[in-house]
């Protein structure tokens, strides 16, 4: 009994020490407040340019509980939802820090590693359109490369490469999950990858990007003739988005900068020379909405876990209270999880699906011209961080 508990105790002590070491840096970052992490507020839609905007959501960071308030605006003309004001490069660095890497790496790495069935279903959507074989596949926003590892079982003769801004992609290469690892901004790297790929995939990636227009143009550039583009993103038109309000997990503030209605994405892909071959709503649905909403609500009222951006570590009494509250709420969480599973088969038909998936084929071989009038100008922090899905 004592021996089995020792690794857990050691890990907890190591984490506590790491948090203590990081706390002075966070304290210095927050000394000037959070206003400097935001750009100027936009008065027009970054997708279509219309100026008829309305506030859709105001919330805080419900996952890490870092300080700050975040606003999502909706364009009345096209339905595009976007963070406004949007985080600057300094803001993105601050709010992403210790989420996917650092303090959060072990926890999220374990989550990603248990989703092989989800990854396989994503890859299966390409099978009917890959009769001629696929030589190279680029997974953009690959994280630790777990999708590529799972997809290789369906496409054993395909070379999978990964691209991401974080060091996770380098880990993926060392672990043999990807052949080539590209670390950096996709739009900046796309010219060196021009025409090399039969498939480019973006799973819960575009919503993290500062400029989705540029990312789509980069995908077009990286694809060869008749190449396939596979995209999966949260569906902002899910009924859960309104029913659950700020507790709907895919809002994921402050990380999700843009939420794209499917009709907008289809239209943009058509403008870029793609033909949409497949649109799925029920299939990519992840049945966690009710469970996640209950957990987020409970987590918001319970005493905080220790974190480097909090003024100090919680005492033993607060830790015990937190554990007691979650234990008492276990029946509610279990019931929410069961209801999620029960509703999953009808989520697509009932418009409850929290995500959609598009597969499109590039039919026009010419490269996209620079200066698309519908796209906003490039910003210095263009790029995306790995996803949480």
From TrEMBL:
Gene3D superfamilies: Vaccinia Virus protein VP39. InterPro entries: SAM-dependent_MTases_sf. The keyword Transferase applies. Keywords: Methyltransferase, Transferase. GO terms for biological process: methylation. It holds the Pfam family Methyltransf_23. One of its GO terms (molecular function) is methyltransferase activity. The keyword Transferase applies. This is Class I SAM-dependent methyltransferase.
């Amino acid at each position: 009994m004592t021996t089995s508990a020792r690794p857990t105790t050691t890990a907890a002590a190591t984490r506590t020490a790491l948090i203590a070491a990081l706390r002075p840096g966070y304290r210095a970052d927050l000394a000037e407040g959070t206003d400097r992490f935001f750009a100027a507020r936009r008065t027009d839609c970054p997708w279509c340019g219309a100026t008829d905007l309305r506030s859709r959501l105001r919330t805080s960071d419900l996952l890490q509980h870092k300080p700050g308030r975040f606003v999502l605006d909706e364009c009345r003309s096209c339905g595009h939802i976007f963070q406004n004001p949007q985080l600057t490069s300094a803001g993105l660095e601050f709010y992403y820090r210790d989420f996917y890497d650092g303090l959060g790496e072990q926890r999220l790495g374990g989550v990603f590693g248990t989703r092989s069935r989800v990854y396989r279903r994503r890859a299966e959507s390409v099978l009917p359109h890959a009769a001629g074989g696929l030589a190279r596949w680029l997974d953009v926003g690959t994280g630790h490369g777990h999708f590529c590892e799972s997809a290789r079982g369906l496409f054993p003769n395909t070379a999978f490469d990964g691209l991401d801004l974080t060091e996770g992609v380098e880990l993926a290469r060392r672990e043999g999950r990807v052949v080539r690892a590209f670390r950096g901004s996709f739009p900046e790297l796309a010219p060196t990858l021009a025409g090399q790929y039969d498939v480019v995939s973006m799973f819960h990636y575009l919503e993290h990007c500062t400029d989705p227009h540029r990312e789509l143009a980069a995908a077009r550039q990286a694809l060869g003739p008749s190449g396939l583009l596979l995209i999966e993103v949260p569906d902002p038109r899910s009924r859960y988005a309104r029913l659950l309000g700020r507790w709907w997990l895919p809002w994921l503030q402050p990380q999700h900068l843009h939420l794209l209605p499917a009709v907008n994405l289809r239209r943009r892909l058509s403008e870029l020379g793609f033909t949409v071959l497949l649109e799925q709503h029920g299939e990519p649905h992840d049945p966690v909405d009710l469970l996640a909403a209950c957990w987020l609500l409970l987590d918001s009222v319970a005493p905080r876990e220790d974190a480097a951006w909090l003024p100090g570590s919680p005492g033993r009494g607060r830790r015990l209270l937190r554990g007691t509250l979650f234990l008492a709420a276990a029946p509610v969480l279990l019931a929410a999880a069961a209801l999620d599973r029960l509703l999953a088969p009808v989520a697509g038909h009932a418009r409850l699906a929290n995500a959609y998936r598009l597969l499109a084929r590039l039919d026009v071989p010419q490269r996209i011209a620079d200066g698309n009038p519908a796209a906003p100008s490039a910003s210095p922090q263009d790029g995306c961080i790995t996803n949480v899905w």
